[in-house]
Amino acid sequence: MKPTIPETGMPIARPATGNDADRQETSLHGEILLRLRDYVVEGNIPDGARVPERQLCEMLGISRTPLREALKVLAAEGLIELLPNRGARVRQLSERDLEELFDVMAGLESLAGRLACEAITDEEIAAIERLHYKMYGHYLNSDMHNYFQVNQRIHESIVAAARNETLRATYASFAGRIRRVRYSANFARKRQRWGEAMREHEAILDALRRRAPSELSDILFQHLRNKRSAAIEHLATVRDTNAPTAATG
Amino acid sequence: MKPTIPETGMPIARPATGNDADRQETSLHGEILLRLRDYVVEGNIPDGARVPERQLCEMLGISRTPLREALKVLAAEGLIELLPNRGARVRQLSERDLEELFDVMAGLESLAGRLACEAITDEEIAAIERLHYKMYGHYLNSDMHNYFQVNQRIHESIVAAARNETLRATYASFAGRIRRVRYSANFARKRQRWGEAMREHEAILDALRRRAPSELSDILFQHLRNKRSAAIEHLATVRDTNAPTAATG
DNA sequence: GCAACCAATTTTGCATTCATTTTTTGTCTT
DNA sequence: AAGACAAAAAATGAATGCAAAATTGGTTGC
Q1: Please, which pLDDT band fits residue B224 given cuts at 50, 70 and 90?
Q2: Do residue B119 and residue B135 come from a single domain?
Q3: CA of A140 to nearest chain B CA: how many angstroms apart?
Q4: CA of A244 to C1' of D28 (A)
Q5: Are A166 and A108 in contact (CB under 8 A)?
Q6: Do B108 and A103 touch (CB under 8 A)?
Q7: pLDDT tens-digit readout, A67-126
Q8: Which domain holds residue A13?
Q9: Which among A71, A92, A113 is the end of a domain?
Q10: pLDDT value at A19 more than 70
Q11: Chain A: nearest CA to B184, how far in angstroms?
């Protein structure tokens, strides 16, 4: 039983709606890159599994040249790794890798908060407040899916308010790497953590209203740090419980 | 007079000593990538100039396939940009781009400081202190080149002390983008700024010794922010004074 | 019965080739 | 003489081809 890419019948369904940080609209290579990235991020290939060029070429209906170019880029982004003469594999993130990623994300959001204090408008703050209340509703309903959705939009709003396109693109890239793990591991933060998170979010809003950069920076970092703990903990459980990954078995 | 790559006779001289974040030792593509990156970072191609594939192929003695793969990666890193059907150009950074880059660097270093407080050893702090005194010597001698050199090593030491390989690689990548501008613009901070910078460094060391994460984070951010002002200011002068770039004329 | 070895097949890495698109250059018109 | 148009030249984007390396399967020897 060799690990294989699930046959979806149709090629990759996504109409290239990913983050438009670096899309090369017209080129085939650019299109492929977006689709492949989404495909990997969404966890369609198991951790550590090989990414056979031939198969992907058929799947995408292209030749190997543009595909290989896309693979090189994905490797540079850290989503896959290229073993010399042994093809591409989906990068299996160790626990340590995840810790590092979360910390970098924390740093980037912390920075975003700092910068946001310089430029954010009252209307933007109001919008985040509305999201916050919306999220609170989902919290009360124990609606995990929508809670996450809105939670993510809040964090994205803060990053957007930083008015720094470079930061936004970097943040999106790292978010993708983590999102992959989230998909695979079917993350579900313990409900208990939700309460803390809600309180932290209130503190974030408070600091934002007062436009206190250092304080907001600290709170955001700590907030993400707490997320990190929950996520790593959960992942450890999942990896222990679940079957060994495609890479090892 | 069209902008052209200086003929060095020999291929690119550098023995691939760049950051080993993502080196693919054995593959031709990986080797090419390292050499090309250094070549671009060191400013051997003027801002906005075309990067002709053919010419580079001859220069490197390879075919277009691995070269194009490397170009795609460099584009993803933000060093060059790929115009559809019109080849690769060295990315001309606007003033705003630079501001953004400096701010992200500031955020990363600020994060590094925060993390360093958790793990840095007394010996590492002592090493940074030694660098600091060494830098002070260069400051007194107005030895700009060595001052910069040591200054950079101090910042790298802080990043290293964060014990986060992901952060280190990201930091190195952004540093490369800025370094390119530095090479081209022949950066020289005003001597007046040096004094402030020295004082800021002392504050950094102080916070580091006390392992005060929030404080260190703040100081580092502000320090980099001040650097940013000086750099942007200088660049504006240079760009005004100098001839129009290769891109526009 | 199991491990080690060797041949066949597959896969990868790079060069070459082909089709478009862009850029240049030469000519013609006004 | 200047501008516009058209053909030639060059460059780009992608497909194909070929040599080298790795994986697979089968066989042999212990």
Answers
A1: very high
A2: yes
A3: 33
A4: 34
A5: no
A6: no
A7: 999 999 999 999 999 999 999 999 999 999 999 999 999 999 999 999 999 999 999 999
A8: 1-92
A9: A92
A10: no
A11: 21
Mean pLDDT value across residues B22-30? 63
Compare A10 and B63 and report the one with higher pLDDT. B63
- What strand order describes the sheet that includes B50-51? B50-51, B87-90, B80-83
Question: Strand ranges (DSSP E) for chain A?
Answer: 50-51, 80-83, 87-90
The answer on B146 and B72 residing in a single domain is no
| pTM for this model (two decimals) | 0.87
10 Å Cβ neighbour count for B155?
24
A155 burial via Cβ count (<10 Å: 0-12, 13-18, 19+): buried
Has residue A248 been placed in a domain?
no
Mean pLDDT of the B152-161 span: 97
B115: nearest CA partner in chain A:
A103
Indicate if B14 and B113 belong to the same structural domain.
no
Indicate whether B246 belongs to any domain.
no
Q: Tokens at residue B126, please?
A: 């002592």
Q: What is the pLDDT of residues A210-225, one digit of tens each?
A: 999 999 999 999 999 9
Residue with tokens 């670096």: A22
Please name every residue paired with B83 in a beta bridge, in sequence order, or none if there are none.
B87
The interface pTM score, or ipTM, of the predicted complex is: 0.86
Return d(Cα B151, Cα A96) in angstroms, integer.
Answer: 30
- Judged by CB atoms closer than 8 Å, whether chains meet at B82 and A24 is answered as yes
Which residues in chain B have their CB less than 8 angstroms from residue A82's CB? 24, 27
Do A69 and A153 sit in the same domain of this protein?
Answer: no
Check whether residue A59 and residue A147 sit in a common domain.
Answer: no
Question: Do A20 and A59 lie in a common domain?
Answer: yes
Please report, for the domain that includes residue A50, its CATH number. Answer: 1.10.10.10
Q: What is the rounded distance in angstroms from the CA atom of residue B148 to the CA atom of residue B139?
A: 10
**Mean pLDDT, chain A, as a whole number?**
85
Over residues B180-196, the mean pLDDT reads: 75
Q: Is position B85 within any domain?
A: yes
Q: In terms of residues, how long is chain A?
A: 249
Bridge partners, B87 (sequence order)? B83
- How many domains are contained in chain A? 2
Of all nucleotides, the one whose C1′ comes closest to residue B52's CA is: D11
Residues in B touching A108 (Cβ below 8 Å) = 107, 111
Contact A57, A64 (CB under 8 A): yes
Residue B54 located in a structural domain: yes
- Minimal Cα–Cα distance from B167 to chain A, Å? 6
- CATH number of the domain to which A101 belongs: 1.20.120.530
| Among candidate residues B77, B108, B21, B41, the one with its CA nearest the CA of residue A81 | B21
Residue B68 shares a structural domain with residue B176: no
B189 and B84 inside one domain: no
Q: Is the Cβ–Cβ distance between B133 and B183 less than 8 Å? A: no
